[in-house]
Amino acid sequence: MNGNYRSSQQIIDVYRNFQIYGEPIEAKGPNKDTASFISFNRDVSLDNLAQHIKDLILDLHNNHGIPYREIAVIAPQRQPLISLARSVKRIAPELPLDAAGLSPLCRDDNNLFYHLSKLILSTPAPDKVVQRMRWANNLLEILIEKIPHISNLNLSLQRILKITNSFTSTSVLGIEYLKEGFGYFFNKLNIDISEYPEIIEEHADFENKCLRKQSKNGLGDSISVYKNGFAKAGGVTFITAHKCKGLEYDTVIGISLLWGVIPHWNNIYSREIDENEISKKLLYVLSSRAKSNLFFVAETGRRTQKGRPYSANYHLAEIFR
C-alpha cells in the first residue's frame, strides 16, 4: 500500500528516507497538503531539555491550537523519558502529562494496598468501568488470600467499587488521603487489620516505598501528585518508540535521537544485526506517528559510560545537513 491517510506529504517526505523497502508513499488524507512544522535540533543541552520541551508544547497548544492529547514525546528508551516527564512536571505542574513515573505509587502486585490505592485514587467514569472492575477483582483475590475469612462475607466486585467510590476526604497530602481511604474501606467491611501483623507490615512497606519514590520524583506530596496517572486522558503523551506503533498524533517530538541510543550500542556491536536497518526502522516508526508536525531533538550533554559525548543519529544528520 502506497497511500497514506495519516500524514501530510511533507511529513512523509521525511520519513520515507527511513523506508527499508516498498513503494514511494503518497499522502491521500484531508491534511495531505498541510504546511508542517519540521525541524532537527542539535543545539539544546540536556540541562535545558525540559525547558525546551515545555516551551515547545505550550507554543504548539497556545499559539497553534493543538490539543495536549494530540502531542506525543517519543524516545528510544524508557528511563530518559521518565526523567524528562518528571522534569517538565516540576517546572510546569499545571501542564497535563500522560506519562509513567509521575505517580509516587510503586507497582507491587503482591501488595493489597497497591491495588486498593488504584481504586481510591481513580475517579469512576464510563470509559474506566472495565479497568476498575479488573482492579477490584485483583484486590478481591489478594484479600481472600491474606484474610481467608473474608470469603464468608460474600464480598462482590460491585461492593468493593461501591465502597471505594463513596470515599471522600479533605486531606491534601497523598499519604494521609490514602491512610484515610484504607481505614474507611476496612471499617466498611468491619475488619480490624491490627489483628493481621502481615497486613500491617505490608502497609508500612507500601507507605515507605511511596515516600521514597515521592522524594525521588521531586514533585511534591499533594493528593494531585498521587492521582497522576489516574486523571482523565487528555495530556501530552510520553511514550517509547517501541510502544507507539499503531498510534497517531498531530505532533510528534522525538528526543534522545543519538547514535548509541538509536540504534543501541548492543545493536551496533552485534555481528548478527544491521544497526543501520534498526536505526531506520525505529526512526520510521517514530516519524510516521505524526500527522502534521515533527520535531527531532538530539540533545547535547549525554555521555557514554566511557565519558565520550554522544553524536546525533547519523541518518538524521544526513537528512538535515
Automatic annotation (TrEMBL):
<dbReference type="GO" id="GO:0005524">
    <property type="term" value="F:ATP binding"/>
</dbReference>
<dbReference type="InterPro" id="IPR027417">
    <property type="entry name" value="P-loop_NTPase"/>
</dbReference>
<keyword id="KW-0067">ATP-binding</keyword>
<feature type="domain" description="UvrD-like helicase C-terminal">
    <location>
        <begin position="234"/>
        <end position="297"/>
    </location>
</feature>
<dbReference type="GO" id="GO:0003678">
    <property type="term" value="F:DNA helicase activity"/>
</dbReference>
<dbReference type="InterPro" id="IPR014017">
    <property type="entry name" value="DNA_helicase_UvrD-like_C"/>
</dbReference>
<keyword id="KW-0347">Helicase</keyword>
<dbReference type="GO" id="GO:0003677">
    <property type="term" value="F:DNA binding"/>
</dbReference>
<keyword id="KW-0378">Hydrolase</keyword>
<dbReference type="GO" id="GO:0016787">
    <property type="term" value="F:hydrolase activity"/>
</dbReference>
<dbReference type="Pfam" id="PF13361">
    <property type="entry name" value="UvrD_C"/>
</dbReference>
<protein>
    <submittedName>
        <fullName>ATP-dependent helicase</fullName>
    </submittedName>
</protein>
<dbReference type="InterPro" id="IPR000212">
    <property type="entry name" value="DNA_helicase_UvrD/REP"/>
</dbReference>
<keyword id="KW-0547">Nucleotide-binding</keyword>
